[in-house]
Design a protein that fits this description.
Helices cover 56% and strands 18% of the residues.
Amino acid sequence: MLQPSFRSRYVLFVGLRYSFSRKRNRFASVIASVSMLGMVLGVTSLITVLSIMNGFSGELRNRILSLVPHGYVLPANGGLERWEELALRLEQAGGVEAVAPYISNKVILAGSQSLRGAVLSAIDPAREVAVSELDEALVAGQLGDLEHEPYSIILGVTLARALGVRPGDRLEVTVPRLTVTPLGTFPRSKRLRVVGLFAISAQADGYQAYVSLATGQKLFGLGDRVDGLQLRTPELMSAPATLARLGAGLGPELQVRDWSQTQGSLFRAIRMEKVMVGLLLLSVVAVAAFNIISTLVMSVAEKRGDIAVLRTMGARAGDIMRIFVAHGLGLAAVGIGLGTLAGIALASHVAAVTKTVESLLGVKLFDPAVYFISELPAQLLWQDVLVVVAASFLLSLVATLYPAWRASRIAPAEVLRYE
């Protein structure tokens, strides 16, 4: 009787010997090579594409959320009065690093070339720098210019280009509020001077504009009131939990919203897209894995004599099944290993590969004038690599079971009868 340790060693040895032996049927060798190549391509594609999706998600998070505070405190009804007292109270609460007031509404901006709808936000420049990165996104002017010059405005670069204005020019803003005069009722409008431009290379460049808090209160007729307060917490990803605890102690007259409620749908859509793309590419790995079935079926037919000899020497049916499972997994392991190495290398150098392709073709694949990016971003996450490798091995294991079971059912007497 074979010892268990020896039995497991010889099963693995024979299975791997079948996988990499040179004395094989040429057609079976071609099929095995195609299976391994398909596995390499599938695993490489999966790791690379998932890394690029991670890169896109990171770019969007860094750009869009650079202008978005971690959370908001809003009154349940109407504007927020005596906001300074509430701001001081929030700053003293745990988990809040900075507080800034804001007013936000939709307006119509009229420049020298066209009219554009926009979102006009009134901010306190001194406090704004603590809750967002607007000052770092400025490409012209300074945030403090909003306070120094009454009725001034800062625009996104795309919005300014569409309106045909630049710093120093004037434009007209029309707000959703009516002015009653002896001649009738008219929309309230005001001429503002452009003092700055910002760029985050995202959609906000095309619709966002900023004025000072005093200018916004006059334009919207709010007096000393504001729409709410912006909050910044120590960590962006933990902000929802932090602000949920904060909201529980503020009472029903105040509402607390975090960035995941205002911008979360976009990032949930990106995550869903990543999952769907991953599943589609996993089908490539599945096809390669199930090509192993063809390889093992031909191998079983070729090794019928070996199987009969092993059975007469004391090998059990389970041993034969494990031999051919090891045979199939040995082929899959080579493909998965090479694909993993190629995927990691490609994902780590995708920007350099893109530039090489651009230089060879003489074209710009990602024109900054058209796209918000100039090169493919990629972020390699090791948990993605582990998931891809585990899923590939699981598919390969499933593919080996049926041919291995058929091999274990071969009766040695029938085979040896004709030898």
